[in-house]
Amino acid sequence: MTATDPALTALAQGWCALSLLHGRIETHIERALQTRHDLSVREYSLLDVLSRQHHGEGGHLQMKQVADAVVLSQSATTRLVTRLEDRGLLSRYLCPTDRRGIYTDVTDAGLQLLEEARPTNDKALREALDEAAKSPELVPLVRVVESLPASA
Predict the structure, then answer these.
(1) Could you tell me the pLDDT band of residue 10, with boundaries at 50, 70 and 90?
(2) Is pLDDT of 137 > 80?
(3) Which residues lie closer than 8 Å to 106 by C-beta, 6 or more apart?
(4) What's the mean pLDDT in 88-111?
(5) pLDDT at residue 72 is higher than 60
(6) Is the CB of residue 34 less than 8 Å from the CB of residue 40?
(7) CA 118 to each of CA 30, 37, 63, 104: distance values in angstroms, whole numbers, following the listed order
(8) % helix / strand / coil in the chain, to the nearest 5?
């Protein structure tokens, strides 16, 4: 393949379209969450991921798993956890079986804020996808996002 290979050009254009769609969606959701709930997209995502944990075996996520889920580095995730903990939305405690491990749980206030923010997030996502579907180059990507199963 050369730098002018049509397959590479198509691949690059596809990546640019995907990046554009992601940026538009994230910007729209960010604006809605900040305006209505004083939450960033990353804060919302972190609360959402942590709210799905449970107290049984394997129920708590390690910080690396949390970082992967919210697409941040471990250090950025730790800073984000600290900010939300300072706001009373998260709490941390030592793992009862491994004193080196630290668990992070969503507080009742965090759960309440998450439940209040979820409809805003969902509505903003729908709006962003509907707007993106007006761009012919983004239509195929919007369709793919809409067709993904809930577990994805």
Answers:
(1) confident
(2) yes
(3) 47, 50, 51, 89, 90, 114
(4) 86
(5) yes
(6) yes
(7) 13, 10, 23, 20
(8) 65, 5, 30
Instruction: Give dist(CA 55, CA 62) in Å, integer.
Output: 13
Cβ atoms of 103 and 92 closer than 8 Å: yes
User: Which amino acid is present at 108?
Assistant: D
Q: Tell me the backbone φ, ψ of residue 91, rounded to 5 degrees.
A: -135, 155
Secondary structure element (H or E) that encloses residue 93, with its range: strand 90-94
With a pLDDT cut of 90, the percent of the chain lying above it is: 66
The full DSSP string for the chain is --TT-HHHHHHHHHHHHHHHHHHHHHHHHHHHHHHHHS--HHHHHHHHHHHT--SSTT-SPPHHHHHHHHT--HHHHHHHHHHHHHTTSEEEEE-SS-TT-EEEEE-HHHHHHHHHHHHHHHHHHHHHHHHHTTSTTTHHHHHHHHHS-TT-
Determine contact, residues 33/44, Cβ cutoff 8 Å.
yes
Amino acid at 99: R
